[in-house]
């Protein structure tokens, strides 16, 4: 086993002591390693998870929703600054509307960068989540009719474009709006715009029978099995299922997009300039867009858009980004995590160093710190330094 494979296996084994099961992937230039540890079920139940095991990826779904927005923008189907009300025309119930505050209308760009001012959760869910945090499938009631009826009664916390407020509601509305504009469902939208072109057959909204047999059951932090989440018409916020193998293809595409020098991620001191490009073409697991691919320009667009979160971090379309302090190496980290009732996920990459990591677990316990440690090890080029 090579150094990268050993590091990935060690990371997976370490996670298995905290999770029912986990799969870890690392990408470094042309090399990809994927390893699983633990089991898909508690005790002796289930087998060892692997590259083709499906997991709920939760809010990592949001980067797919935003990439679909970028694809449709470049196709002329929508524009980033198109008002949400215009895109939802014909779908909004009579008497409802899109909330407003300040001079700017709420746009698709605002939804993708969490700068809409919308609350984190749909109406009525905050109290419910506090009173019953373990409620199965808490978003199952979020049909388009209910979401859009309640939208007209929703108050924006800040004027659109003026602040940062992470919003599952906003991301879900973005997915709903894009599906409505294209006359299709959210799952078909993602398949057509992203998964089909990249050959990601195991990234789905609703798995078929064969994929369901490979879907790991979710568990509470204590290891008790829990049912999966549905999310209904809020699917764009977190309803996709995927595998480590498919997400490795997705990260390859993200890294390859920097080969044409168009993806802007900030200068090496943390400013707003263009990142230093790489001439690396995609390779290994599944390939990637590279030059001339229909996804390359859309991926570049997602990272050209930046909304400042705080002095040290920003929001792209879908992805969060920050640059470590120079004393920590000054490395660029672009990432998103996710969580549902029985799963956790973390996906991150550095296009300058051409490295990336994926961590998937079927337990409701964060994997973020493990993913960050693995990414830092790849960025420093010292695989043996990952903390135990």
Q: What's the arrangement of secondary structure elements?
A:
Layout: H1 3-16, E1 21-28, E2 31-38, E3 55-56, H2 61-75, H3 84-87, H4 108-112, H5 125-131, H6 144-151, H7 168-182, H8 186-198, H9 209-213, E4 218-219, E5 225-226, E6 241-242, H10 244-256, H11 296-304, E7 307-310, E8 313-315, E9 320-323, E10 332-339, E11 344-350, E12 355-361, H12 368-380
Helix pairs in contact: 2-7, 2-8, 2-11
Global geometry: globular
Beta-strand segment tally: 12
Overall pLDDT level: 88
Strand order of the largest sheet: 2-1-12-11-10-9-8-7
Question: Mind explaining what this structure looks like?
Answer:
This protein has 388 residues and is of the alpha+beta class. It is built from twelve helices and twelve strands. It is 31% helix and 15% strand. Strands 2-1-12-11-10-9-8-7 form an eight-stranded antiparallel beta sheet, with helices on both faces. A two-stranded antiparallel ribbon has the order 3-6. Strands 4-5 form a two-stranded antiparallel sheet. The C terminus is likely disordered.
Summarize the structure.
The protein contains twelve helices and twelve strands. The chain has helices spanning 3-16, 61-75, 84-87, 108-112, 125-131, 144-151, 168-182, 186-198, 209-213, 244-256, 296-304, 368-380; strands at residues 21-28, 31-38, 55-56, 218-219, 225-226, 241-242, 307-310, 313-315, 320-323, 332-339, 344-350, 355-361.
């Amino acid at each position: 086993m090579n150094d990268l494979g050993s590091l990935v296996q060690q990371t997976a084994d370490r996670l298995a002591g905290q999770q029912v099961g986990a799969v870890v992937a690392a990408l470094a230039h042309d090399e990809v390693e994927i390893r699983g540890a633990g089991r898909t079920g508690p005790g002796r139940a289930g087998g060892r998870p692997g590259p083709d095991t499906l997991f709920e990826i939760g809010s990592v779904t949001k980067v797919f929703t935003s990439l679909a927005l970028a694809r449709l923008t470049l196709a002329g189907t929508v524009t980033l600054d198109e008002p949400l009300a215009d895109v939802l025309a014909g779908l909004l119930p009579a008497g409802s509307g899109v909330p407003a505050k300040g001079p700017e209308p709420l746009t698709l760009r605002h939804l993708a960068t969490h700068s809409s001012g919308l609350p984190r959760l749909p109406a009525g869910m905050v109290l419910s989540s506090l009173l019953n945090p373990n409620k199965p499938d808490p978003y199952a009631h979020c049909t388009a009719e209910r979401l859009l009826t309640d939208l007209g009664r929703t108050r924006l916390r800040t004027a659109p474009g003026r602040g940062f407020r992470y919003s599952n509601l906003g991301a879900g509305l973005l997915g709903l709006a894009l599906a409505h504009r294209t006359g299709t469902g959210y799952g078909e939208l993602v398949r057509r715009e992203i998964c089909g072109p990249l050959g990601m057959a195991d990234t789905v909204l609703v798995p078929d029978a064969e994929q369901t047999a490979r879907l790991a059951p979710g568990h509470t932090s204590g290891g008790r099995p829990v049912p999966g989440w549905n999310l209904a018409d809020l699917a764009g916020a977190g309803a996709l299922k995927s595998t480590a193998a498919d997400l490795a293809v997705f990260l390859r595409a993200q890294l390859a997009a920097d080969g044409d020098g168009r993806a802007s991620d900030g200068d090496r001191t943390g400013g707003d300039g263009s990142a230093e490009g790489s001439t690396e073409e995609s390779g290994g697991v599944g390939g990637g867009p590279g030059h001339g691919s229909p996804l390359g320009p859309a991926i570049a667009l997602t990272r050209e858009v930046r909304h400042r979160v705080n002095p040290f971090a920003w929001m792209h379309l879908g992805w969060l980004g920050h640059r470590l302090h120079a004393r920590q190496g000054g490395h660029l980290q672009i990432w998103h995590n996710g969580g549902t009732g029985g799963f956790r996920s973390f996906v991150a990459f550095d296009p300058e160093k051409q490295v990336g990591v994926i961590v998937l677990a079927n337990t409701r316990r964060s994997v973020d710190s493990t993913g960050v440690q693995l990414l830092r090890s790849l960025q420093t080029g010292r695989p043996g330094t990952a903390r135990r």
